[in-house]
Amino acid sequence: MALYLVTGIAGFIGSALGGALLAQGHEVDGVDDLSTGFMENVPAGAAFFRGDCGESETYARLLPKRPYDAIFHIAGQSSGEVSFDDPLRDLRTNTGSTLHLLRFALETGCRRLVYASSMSVYGEQPDAAVREDAPCRPMSFYGVGKLASEHYLRIYGRYGIASTSLRLFNVYGPGQNMGNMRQGMVSIYMSMLADGVVRVKGRPDRFRDFVYIDDVVRAFLACLDHPESEGRELNIGGSGKVLVGDLLDRLLALSKTPARVEFAGETPGDILGIHADLTLARRCLGYVPRTDLDAGLAAMYAWHTGRSGG
Ligand SMILES: NC(=O)c1ccc[n+]([C@@H]2O[C@H](COP(=O)([O-])OP(=O)(O)OC[C@H]3O[C@@H](n4cnc5c(N)ncnc54)[C@H](O)[C@@H]3O)[C@@H](O)[C@H]2O)c1
Fold it and tell me: Tell me: the pLDDT tens digits for 143-163?
């Protein structure tokens, strides 16, 4: 039985990962400042610490009984749009957290860290599946912070902390925060179906790569068994290239109530499109997404309507 730390355990991805680690019989400590997460998401059986990973005092309270076998650093302000509200806060909470955690890992003898990075590190790219060696020119403060974190992880590799940065594409699925209207393309559009109008910021010919939560969790877990993933950045996509207009059609087809789409405005830092080349993730992690978009959307819609009653 191993002991793991999961940051952001009260959020969408962190809670799913924490639950999966517990289901495998491991011990899990979780930390979260509950800025966008919820106590009810914290999986039963995890030891929970409330704290900001970007503040040193959090680490004074986190005293693992033995060195963590790995730290999964999932906590973060997760919206590119929100990063424009206060770039300094974004830097402190997202990138500062990574530096604090790396120092904490070094001091407490943890030698493995897996990081929730993002496709936002790439910025605008040619319309071809993007590889990890593409030049990174992030278009949001959020993406800059994720890229900086990846570099800090690389530097700490020299001090014996093996890390993997998973560049997650658009993650969706049951457990996503359906009330957050500034993060998560699928969750935002799906939550508006019941109102009869899906208001879309940006053009329908934008394109993304949508990856189901279970596939993301499998990718994080696979890092533990695949030393080839150490010291790398790896794309974690799912659907391949899907136009936003196509996503909307699929959602309208799923909806129990009639709905129409309105396009207006745009999101700061938004890009036309991006989708993942998964060759390296397949080679280093054995990662192949298993849930296709229609099955994933149907499962998420069933979960959403089951709890919202509509
Ligand atoms: N959801 C996606 O599509 C996506 C894509 C790429 C990368 N990511 C990254 O994955 C991670 C998790 O995203 P999510 O979708 O689960 O978002 P989320 O908002 O549901 O979860 C983030 C969690 O981290 C907590 N948190 C935020 N800042 C913190 C801090 N400084 N200290 C402690 N806790 C803090 C929040 O309270 C929340 O519980 C984030 O780092 C995000 O940038 C997500």
Answer: 999 999 999 999 999 999 999
Helices (H) and strands (E) in the chain, counts: 10, 13
d(CA 101, CA 221): 19
Average pLDDT over residues 247-272: 93
Q: Is 33 in the pocket of ligand 1 (CB under 6 A)?
A: yes
Strand 207-208 with 242-243, pairing: antiparallel
What CA–CA distance (Å, rounded) separates 308 from 178? 10
98 lines ligand 1 (CB under 6 A): no
With a 6 Å cutoff on the Cβ, whether 18 touches ligand 1 is no
Q: Give CATH for domain 3-172+210-238+278-285.
A: 3.40.50.720
* Residue of 122, 142, 189, 301 marked active site: 142
Q: Do domains 3-172+210-238+278-285 and 185-206+240-274+292-308 have the same CATH topology?
A: no
CATH superfamily of 185-206+240-274+292-308: UDP-galactose 4-epimerase, domain 1 (3.90.25.10)
Mean pLDDT computed over 45-63: 95
pLDDT at 269: 79
Domain ranges in the chain are 3-172+210-238+278-285, 185-206+240-274+292-308
Report pTM: 0.97
Q: How far apart are CA 46 and CA 122, in angstroms?
A: 34
